[in-house]
Amino acid sequence: MGKVNTILFDCDNTLVLSEELAFEGCADLINQIAAAKNVPLEKAFTGESLIVEFVGQNFRGMMRSLQERYNFPLTEEELDTYVKKEEDVVIAKLQEKLSPCPNVDDVLERLATEGKYELAVVSSSALRRVKASIEKVGQDKYFGDRVFSAATSLEKPTSKPDPAIYLHALKVLGKKAEECVAVEDSKSGTLSAARAGIKVIGYVGPYQAAERLKMEKVLAQAGASIIMDDWKQFEGYMAAIEQGDY
């Protein structure tokens, strides 16, 4: 393996504990849209049921999946309006309650002090939301303008598991895939990085104990080289990757 000089972090539930808060706001909005469009949902979505179904997908991706499933009309214009509304709803929730993932700030601080790696964020979420998240918890200082969003940074918005956002980040940063390691908590994120040829550390810390074992398997099958359940393990795993153990 070539020398690793860049670490690419997913944002939601990898750097910050945002997924639950975001899905809560998102579920409310999807239920409103379903009512307005007469979509026959089996039952209203909750943050919890939405997470189970759509973890790792952005709102645009969720709406497209639901549209396919229930076959209701939705113009591009309407979709754009809803996407913007969802951003506002979620950002308000995040600014109220967001906290960092346990022990990640210590790792970021050490990495920044060491200066051995370039650090970037690669997310499916809208850029405004990602920036609001990392600013709220004071992590923005580690990343500068190296923040990439599948929903915003690409000419054609997409969502992980499409590798487009990772390929875009590599291009902008001027890096080869083998110079990078990505940290991802979802199947779609892990697939996205792995499909771009990037080695992935799968992070299962935020999952409930019962879900964690299942997610370890899911992330490994999606292409994660290592599974980490606490950020305290990160430096040890990075050293192992650099020695070629993974």
UniProtKB/TrEMBL annotation:
Its domain of life reads Eukaryota
UniProt-listed InterPro entries: CbbY-like, HAD-like_sf, HAD-SF_hydro_IA, HAD_sf, PGP-like_dom2
Against Pfam families, the record matches this protein to: Hydrolase
Q: Which GO terms describe its molecular function?
A: phosphatase activity
PANTHER family assigned = CBBY-LIKE PROTEIN, XYLULOSE-1,5-BISPHOSPHATE (XUBP) PHOSPHATASE
Report the protein name in the record: WGS project CABT00000000 data, contig 2.11
